[in-house]
Design goal:
Structural class: mainly alpha
Order of helices and strands: HHHHHHHHHH
CATH superfamily of the largest domain: Tetracycline Repressor, domain 2
Shape: elongated
Mean pLDDT: 89
Oligomer: single chain
Strand content: under 5%
Radius of gyration: 20 Å
Number of helices: 10
CATH architecture of the largest domain: Orthogonal Bundle
Number of strands: 0
Number of domains: 2
CATH topology of the largest domain: Tetracycline Repressor, domain 2
Length: 206
């Protein structure tokens, strides 16, 4: 008997399969036909949900972003995180982001010349969704007397967007020296933006 799956379930199944495919095979050599064969679905089925491989890649990237945000939310809700002061929470965010740098093969594809718009759009989406987590910590830091700003959300957006742009060679082919110089300066820039004590964000350049 043929099993008929709900539309959302089928779409998620295709995205999961594509994510696995893009993780294990070069994006250029991966094809929609490969996915059709693996999932045993008809051409009309996969193209009903995704008009092209590029559209499917964007759906995979969105899935990665949403998963990362769910993990970030889970971190912020943990009792260990709640017990930290604002600086401790920033350090926890920094450590957490380093630990979950996976799916590099997929994310590296965003640096390709044909994916500039996709890269920019998804980075903007990620920053927009991520900034409120940082804004909450900034507000808490202001209440604790560690930071001093009247614009917590805008500070978070400014810092996330700025750091992303000046260190991401996917936006521009920055040299290694340029990126290293900027990374070294990031702690001081964050401290100035937040009105934080000098040296309090030194862990960001570690």
């Amino acid at each position: 008997m043929r099993i008929v799956k709900k539309a959302d379930e089928r779409k998620k199944e295709i995205i999961r399969a594509a994510r696995k495919l893009f993780q294990t095979r070069d994006y250029g050599s991966a094809t929609m036909q490969t996915l059709m064969d693996e999932l045993k679905i008809a051409k009309g089925t996969i193209y009903h949900y995704f008009a092209s491989k590029e559209e499917l890649l964007e759906a995979v990237v969105e899935d990665l972003i949403d998963e990362r945000l769910r993990k970030k939310k889970k971190l912020t809700e943990s009792s260990e995180f709640q017990e930290l002061d604002a600086l401790g929470k920033f350090r926890a965010f920094s450590t957490f982001d380093r630990l979950i740098e996976d799916n590099e093969r997929i994310l590296e594809e965003l640096h390709g010349p044909g994916n500039t718009i996709l890269h920019t759009r998804q980075t903007g989406r990620y920053i927009t969704m991520l900034a409120p987590y940082y804004a909450d910590v900034i507000r808490e830091g202001c209440d604790q007397g560690l930071f001093n700003t009247d614009c917590p959300l805008e500070c978070a957006e400014f810092l996330l967007a700025g750091i992303q742009f000046i260190t991401d060679i996917g936006f521009f082919p920055w040299t290694g020296d340029q990126v290293a110089r900027r990374v070294k300066a990031i702690p001081s820039l964050v401290e100035a933006q937040l009105g934080a004590p000098k040296g309090s964000f030194s862990f960001l350049s570690e």
